[in-house]
Amino acid sequence: MNTFQIMGKVSDENKYAYYIQDEANTTYELVKDLVVSPIEVGDSILGFGYIDRDNRAKFIIDLPPIITEGFGWGRVVGRRPNLGLFIDVGLPNKDIVISLDELSDDIAKWPELDAKLLVQMSIDERQRYWAHLLKANDIEQYRKSAPNRLMNQSLQVTLFEDKGVGMVGLSQENFEVFIHESEQLDPLKLGQVVEARVIKVHPNGKLNASTRPRAFEALEDDAQMIQAVLEKQPNQFLPLHDKSPSDEIQRQLGLSKSQFKRAVGRLMKADIVTQVRQEGIYLKTSGDNQ
């Protein structure tokens, strides 16, 4: 029995519920719809008692992981700037709060509604329950060691710790994944579920991953953008080439010189453009491609 579970005795029942009394003579209601096996008055029963949103003492015996395992996934169901985050951890009609002390001063960085957070629970001297964000070190024994074959594979990752320079998450297979800020296509938040590509498998079985597209995928976007720009030009010509100044390429296309050269190379290989030395690139017409 862990800190949060209590042993109670069935003191009474009616058509809809059993009534459980603990050692402190607090009486809790256990709704019969939540009970699978028959219970009789006088039976001792192990479960969890709490005060719900309607200020009623409730008892459950089908316990969520945050109680049985000591931690679990919770869902953000409320954001209160003056209080913190309200988390659904699996208790009927009861949310647990993550206090402001554990959250960023910038509310824009808070997890969004419905975000999944890895949390554990505590109880204070006033018998109030609180949820706390977990860190990677807290679940060292829970995570699995990732095999080398995952290199370059994509995983679905739920982010649960902000390291400042990146995010730590767990994959669906319980592999620990770190995504450095330089490998984030867009800034990530706690509780996000993202698809990330494995870029390194460490000897200890932990993973580094990226949400940025592979080089050839990014190149595809750059090439499509250049093609679209050419199509809008009156003569379907851009006065840019491999000897053009980098700042001019950046000004016109928003690309670095190396990005520009790779994208043009891809377009030439696809027979979409032709490049005239020291002059620029032309979009080929359908007649040119025949």
Automatic annotation (TrEMBL):
Coiled coil: none
One Pfam family this sequence matches: CvfB_2nd
Location of the Conserved virulence factor B-like winged helix domain: 224-283
InterPro entries per UniProt: CvfB_fam, CvfB_S1_2nd, CvfB_S1_3rd, CvfB_WH, NA-bd_OB-fold, WH-like_DNA-bd_sf
Conserved virulence factor B second S1 domain boundaries: 71-132
Domain Conserved virulence factor B third S1: 140-213
PANTHER family reported in the protein's UniProt record: CONSERVED VIRULENCE FACTOR B (PTHR37296:SF1)
Family to which this protein belongs: Belongs to the CvfB family.
Protein name: S1 motif domain-containing protein
Organism: Falseniella ignava CCUG 37419
